[in-house]
C-alpha cells in the first residue's frame, strides 16, 4: 500500500479518519485483511447460488416481491434493474462532502466481508473517492429502512455510467465524466446492487459530517459565551471546580473548567466576583446546559462510529450460511440524529437569550442595543430579531423524524426510521446555530469595547483578531456584513477551547 493512503478494513474507521478522507480528501485504500474477508464472503455466496437455494435479492424479487423467482440467467439483470428502479430521489443535490461521507461509510461496511460483494465493487468506490468524483444524489427519497435505498442507488447509477455527476455544482452525464477520467463503468454481479444500496450509509455518512460540525459549534459557542460574560461583568464563582465536581456529570465539568480557566485574569470578571451574588441562568447555568450538549455529542459519536463499522446489509453471509435479518434498519442512527438536533436547538436557545440580555440596557448596564447615541442609532437591535427567527426555525425543524413511520412496499416494510430526514434537517440546524453563534461574537465584542476594561488573555486575543476585520460600530451601518464576516473569521479559529472540552 502506498504511503499516505488510509487503509480501511470495516473495523477501524473513526472520526479522525472519516474527516481526513471526506473533508481533507486523503486517499483511501482497502486493507489486506479486508480483501481476504471480502473474497471469502464472495466465494461463500457463489457456493450458495450454485446450490440452488432461494436467496433473497439474488434469485428472488425485492420487498413484497420476495416470492417471485428469478431465473439464473436474469440474476445480474436483477441487480441492474434494482439500481435503475430505486434511483427515485427528489430535491436539491446533496453536497460533495455528504456524498463522500456516504460512499466512505458504505465502502467500510462492505470491507467487513459479510455482504457477498466482490473486491472490485469496493475498489470502484475507492476510485470515485480518490478521483474526487461526486455522484448526483437528490436530498429526498430515503425512509431509512430498508436502508437508504434511493440515495445509495443514485450513487451506484453514476458508478454504472448511467446516472449523473456533480462537477462544481453542474450536473453532467456520468458516462461522459467517467470516459474523461478513464474510469470504466461498473458492471454489477449477483447481489452487489443489494449489498450496496441496502444499508444505513446515507444517514450515517451525513450524521458523521453533522457531528463534526456540532463539535465545532459547541467549541465556538463556549468561546462566545465567555465573551458575553466579559461584556456583562459576570461572576465565575458558579464555575468553581469543587462546585462542578459536586455533580457527577462529565460534560458539565469540562465546560465549567473551560469557562473558569479562560475567564482568569479578567478585571471585568474580578469585579463581578466582588459585586454579584449570582447571575441569570443563561450565564450561571452555561456549564449545565452546554455540558449536557457535550455529553450528547459524545454519545452520538459512539453510536455513529459503531454504525460506520457495522454490516448493515440484508441478507448477511457468514461462511456458507445466509440469513435475512434487519441490520439495514436505521433506527439507532435516526434516534441519535434527532437527539443531537434537540441538543443543538437548546444550545441556540441559550445563546439567543444572552444576545437579548446584552442588547437590553436594563439588564446589561451597557448602551441600549450596544450603540452610543441610541435613538438616532438602532445599533444591534435587529440582530436579536434575526437570532430569534433562527431559533424559531430550529424549533420547527427539531420535531423528531424518528417519531414517525409510514409503511412502505405493500406493508412488507411496515415500520421505517425516517432517519434520512433526521440527518438532513440536522444539517440546517447546524447552519442556523453557526449563524446564532456568529451574532453573539459580534455583539459580545461590541459590548467589551463599550465596557472598556481589562479582559482575559483568551477574550482579548479573539477581540484583537476580530477587530482587524470588523470595526467598532460607531453609528448605524448594514450589520449583516459584520455577521457574515464574523462567521468567516470564527470558523477559521484554531481554538484551544476545543481541546479543553473534547480531550
From TrEMBL:
CDD domains registered for this protein in UniProt: PAL-HAL
Transmembrane segments: none
SUPFAM superfamilies in the cross-refs: L-aspartase-like
Catalytic activity: L-histidine = trans-urocanate + NH4(+)
GO biological process, one term: L-histidine catabolic process to glutamate and formamide
Keywords noted in UniProt: Histidine metabolism, Lyase
Pfam families noted in UniProt: Lyase_aromatic (PF00221)
Enzyme class: lyase
EC number: 4.3.1.3
Protein localization: Cytoplasm
A GO term from the CC aspect: cytoplasm
Family under the similarity heading: Belongs to the PAL/histidase family.
Name of this protein: Histidine ammonia-lyase
Source organism (scientific name): Cuniculiplasma divulgatum
Amino acid at each position: 500500500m502506498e504511503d499516505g493512503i488510509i487503509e480501511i478494513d470495516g473495523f477501524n474507521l473513526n472520526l479522525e479518519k472519516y474527516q481526513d478522507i471526506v473533508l481533507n480528501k486523503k486517499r483511501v485504500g482497502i486493507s489486506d485483511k479486508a480483501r481476504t474477508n471480502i473474497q471469502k464472503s464472495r466465494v461463500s455466496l457463489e457456493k450458495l447460488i450454485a446450490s440452488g437455494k432461494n436467496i433473497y435479492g439474488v434469485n428472488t424479487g425485492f420487498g413484497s416481491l420476495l416470492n417471485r423467482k428469478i431465473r439464473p440467467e436474469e440474476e445480474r439483470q436483477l441487480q441492474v434493474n434494482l439500481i435503475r428502479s430505486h434511483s427515485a430521489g427528489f430535491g436539491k443535490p446533496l453536497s460533495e462532502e455528504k456524498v463522500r461521507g456516504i460512499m466512505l461509510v458504505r465502502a467500510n461496511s462492505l470491507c467487513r466481508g459479510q455482504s457477498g460483494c466482490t473486491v472490485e465493487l469496493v475498489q470502484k468506490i475507492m476510485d470515485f473517492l480518490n478521483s474526487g468524483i461526486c455522484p448526483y444524489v437528490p436530498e429526498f427519497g430515503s425512509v431509512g429502512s430498508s436502508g437508504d435505498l434511493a440515495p445509495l442507488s443514485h450513487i451506484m447509477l453514476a458508478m454504472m455510467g448511467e446516472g449523473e455527476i456533480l462537477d462544481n455544482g453542474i450536473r453532467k452525464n456520468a458516462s461522459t465524466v467517467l470516459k474523461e477520467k478513464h474510469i470504466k463503468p461498473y458492471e454489477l454481479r449477483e447481489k452487489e446492487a443489494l449489498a450496496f444500496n441496502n444499508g444505513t450509509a446515507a444517514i450515517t455518512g451525513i450524521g458523521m459530517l453533522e457531528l463534526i460540525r456540532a463539535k465545532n459549534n459547541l467549541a465556538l459557542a463556549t468561546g462566545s459565551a465567555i465573551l458575553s460574560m466579559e461584556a456583562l461583568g459576570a461572576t465565575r464563582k458558579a464555575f468553581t471546580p469543587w462546585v462542578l465536581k459536586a455533580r457527577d456529570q462529565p460534560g458539565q465539568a469540562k465546560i465549567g473548567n473551560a469557562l473558569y480557566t479562560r475567564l482568569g485574569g479578567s478585571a471585568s470578571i474580578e469585579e463581578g466576583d466582588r459585586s454579584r451574588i449570582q447571575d441569570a441562568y443563561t450565564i450561571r447555568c452555561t456549564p449545565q446546559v452546554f455540558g449536557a450538549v457535550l455529553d450528547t455529542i459524545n454519545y452520538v459519536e459512539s453510536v455513529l462510529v459503531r454504525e460506520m463499522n457495522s454490516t448493515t446489509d440484508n441478507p448477511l453471509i457468514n461462511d456458507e450460511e445466509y440469513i435475512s435479518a434487519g441490520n439495514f434498519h436505521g433506527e439507532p442512527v435516526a434516534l441519535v440524529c434527532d437527539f443531537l438536533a434537540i441538543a443543538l436547538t437548546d444550545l441556540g436557545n441559550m445563546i439567543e437569550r444572552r444576545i437579548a440580555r446584552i442588547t437590553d440596557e436594563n439588564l446589561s448596564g451597557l448602551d441600549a442595543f450596544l450603540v452610543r447615541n441610541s435613538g438616532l442609532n438602532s445599533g444591534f437591535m435587529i440582530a436579536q430579531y434575526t437570532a430569534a427567527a433562527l431559533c424559531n426555525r430550529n424549533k420547527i425543524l427539531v420535531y423528531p423524524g424518528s417519531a414517525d413511520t409510514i409503511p412502505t412496499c405493500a406493508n412488507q416494510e411496515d415500520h421505517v426510521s425516517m432517519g434520512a430526514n433526521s440527518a438532513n434537517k440536522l444539517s440546517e440546524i447546524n447552519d442556523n446555530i453557526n449563524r446564532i453563534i456568529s451574532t453573539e461574537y459580534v455583539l459580545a465584542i461590541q459590548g467589551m469595547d463599550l465596557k472598556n476594561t481589562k479582559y482575559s488573555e483568551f477574550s482579548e486575543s479573539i477581540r484583537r483578531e476580530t477587530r482587524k476585520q470588523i470595526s467598532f460600530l460607531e453609528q448605524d451601518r448594514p450589520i449583516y456584513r459584520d455577521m457574515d464576516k464574523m462567521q468567516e473569521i470564527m470558523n477559521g479559529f484554531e481554538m484551544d477551547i476545543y481541546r479543553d472540552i473534547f480531550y
